[in-house]
Amino acid sequence: MVRILVADAMSEEGLAPLLADPTIEVVQKKVGDVEDELDQFDALLVRSATKVTEQLLQKMKNLKIVGRAGVGVDNIDVDAATRYGVVVINAPNGNTISTAEHTFAMMASLVRRIPQAHISVKSREWNRSAFVGVELFGKHLGIIGFGRIGSEVAKRARAFGMHVHVYDPFLTKARAEKIGVDVCTLDELLAKADIITVHTPLTKETKGLLGPKNLAKTKKGVYLINCARGGIIDEQSLISFLENGHVAGVALDVFEQEPPGDHPLLSFDNVIVTPHLGASTVEAQVNVATQVAQEVLTFLQGKPVTSSINLPTLSKDVYEKIQAFYTLARKMGILASQYMSEPVQEIAITYSGSVADLETTFITRSLLAGFLKPRVASTVNEVNAAMIAKERGIAFSEKFSANGNDYNNSITLTVYGENKTFTMKGTHIAHYGDRIVHFNGFAIDFAPEGHLLYIQHHDKPGMIGKVGNILGDHQVNIATMQVGRQEVGGKAIMMLSLDKPLDDTLVETLEQISDIDVVKKLEV
Ligand SMILES: NC(=O)C1=CN([C@@H]2O[C@H](COP(=O)(O)OP(=O)(O)OC[C@H]3O[C@@H](n4cnc5c(N)ncnc54)[C@H](O)[C@@H]3O)[C@@H](O)[C@H]2O)C=CC1
Ligand SMILES: O=C(O)CCC(=O)C(=O)O
User: Fold this and answer.
1) Residue 371: CA atoms inside 13 Å, Cβ hemisphere, count?
2) Fewer CB in a 10 Å sphere around the end CB: N or C, the chain?
3) Residue 86 and residue 101 share a domain
4) Does one domain contain both 453 and 410?
5) Residue 310 within any structural domain of the chain
6) Are residues 85 and 230 part of one domain?
7) 246-259 in b/e burial notation, b at 16+ Cβ within 10 A?
8) Cα angle vertex 258, ends 253, 261, to 5°?
9) What CATH number is associated with residue 405?
10) Range of the domain at 161
11) What pLDDT is attached to residue 311?
12) What's the pLDDT score for residue 56?
């Protein structure tokens, strides 16, 4: 008998296929109530309340799959699950509409002060003049993050007669045009919007995205909404901008710490809040429970799942053969994604020499996963990378060549953006490591590791010295430096490996040097 623990409240209708299966026992209890039996469950289904920590995974010795009825997997230690060989799946689109509608409900409530008016009338007051709002019609809505939820919010905003401006560095023009929105830079959005709503994942790049610097660029009287993840709008900065009257009102469904406890933001009359209710509708809960229940059933029947967000077990044999290229490809994907920080349409990969004879599917997926990681909300890995690339309109192809072109093996990557193309070639040298031997049209030779700094400049005497002096003056130690040029006196590049990450201000300083065209921080 297969045993499934459903640890958080989940729709019975969604769970029906599992409940109806006579070979499955479904136990609907909290983890704390089945401590003695934890090692007897094959599957664990959760929403966001249960924290699937490494300790819990250690106790659930028989566990094979964790199903998250929702999008974000912040409550699951996916790395630990992968290490323990536990497949993690989620339900990426079952709650999209609910969250978009909740965002809209928050927007309307915010500008019409409905929660405040509701409390006032319930307190037996009748103070109509205290609750004069503003219309949504004709207002400029800024949407940061234009994925599943962001695009549904846009459709609703247009129906309300709003002007919609979108910032998403990974959005292709074709997709934006299909929905009919104004695609702009973050600065343009901040300057134009009367109301800003965020719909990105919480990542290194989006944490504090609306912090002191960017909030200062918004219109005085702006309204802000966060129904994505706490921390995308920095809570401390929000307090300052509410106190000085710059921000007219805020709607929050999510917090940096949940529950937020006695948070100072809760004392502002113009801050309205809900307890992470974006996905809390009957329909969304049926959708997400149905999706994970079906997937768990498929998995338990030994068939491949489609919404897995961590690694399947590779056979040891195949893994040993591809491991080195799998790591090189991941690093190349990460580098290319950072270099091409713009929408891309196609990724072409050519395997040459000995690597061309291997099982390259996983190598390609590893490269795609590295490329997509900074761009998507849910965890992306070899299992779901191809599906996500397709979903985002990024085509990818593989070519093979027996000739290694001066190398025993090489992987050549070409990324096609809307306005530019980027190429890179990497090789793995046994007992030596990974090397990038071609970067953006320049022959070069560097290890794709650590804190890298790419500088494209004119080949003139003194350039290396100028860069070295600035870094030295700021106590940034250069570990290695590789240079390359197309012709004497022509375009040239430096790739520096630094002992610590570079501040953005230093990047700006380097950009000011005459004869330097491009400065990019790259982190692997
Ligand atoms: N409040 C709630 O109950 C719920 C919250 N969520 C949260 O909503 C968020 C969005 O979810 P989905 O739309 O399903 O995800 P998605 O992956 O479809 O969309 C995220 C979008 O953000 C964009 N993005 C990534 N980094 C960015 C950056 N630095 N700047 C601007 N855009 C960036 C991506 O290109 C992508 O288009 C997630 O954080 C998710 O966890 C999702 C469901 C329910
Ligand atoms: O399960 C829930 O209610 C939270 C949903 C959510 O935040 C998500 O799906 O990312």
Assistant:
1) 33
2) N
3) no
4) yes
5) no
6) no
7) ebbbbbbbbbbeee
8) 100
9) 3.30.1330.90
10) 95-273
11) 61
12) 98
Mean pLDDT per 10-residue segment, the chain (524 residues): 96 95 96 97 95 96 94 88 84 95 98 98 98 98 96 96 95 80 95 98 92 98 97 98 98 96 98 97 97 92 78 62 92 96 94 92 91 82 80 93 86 95 96 95 95 96 94 95 91 96 93 95 95
Say if residue 64 is in the same domain as residue 99. Answer: no
Q: Is 258 tagged catalytic?
A: yes
User: CA 311, 288, 276, 183 torsion: positive or negative?
Assistant: positive
Q: What is the DSSP string of 208-260?
A: TSBSHHHHTTSPTTEEEEE-S-TTSB-HHHHHHHHHTT-EEEEEES--SSSS-
Residues 376 and 511 in one domain: yes
Report the pLDDT value the prediction gives residue 378, as an integer from 0 to 100.
66
Together in a domain, 372 and 477 = yes
Domain count, the chain: 3
Residue the block writes with tokens 């300790």: 55
DSSP letter assigned to residue 20: T
The predicted structure's pLDDT at residue 80: 84
Residues with CB under 6 A from ligand 1: 71-72, 95-96, 99, 144-150, 167-170, 199-203, 205-206, 227-229, 253-254, 276, 278-279, 375-377
pLDDT score, position 421? 96
The CATH number of the domain holding residue 30 is 3.40.50.720
237 shares its domain with 361: no
Establish if 136 belongs to a structural domain. yes
Tell me whether residue 306 is in a domain: no
Phi, psi of 37 (to 5 degrees): -110, 5
Confidence check on the interface: ipTM exceeds 0.90, yes or no: yes
Measuring from each residue's beta carbon to the nearest atom of ligand 2, which residues come in under 6 Å?
Answer: 47-48, 70-72, 95, 276, 278-280
Whether 412 is in a domain gets the answer yes
389 & 498 share domain: yes
Q: What is the pTM of this model?
A: 0.77
Reported as type and span, the H/E element at residue 494 is strand 491-498
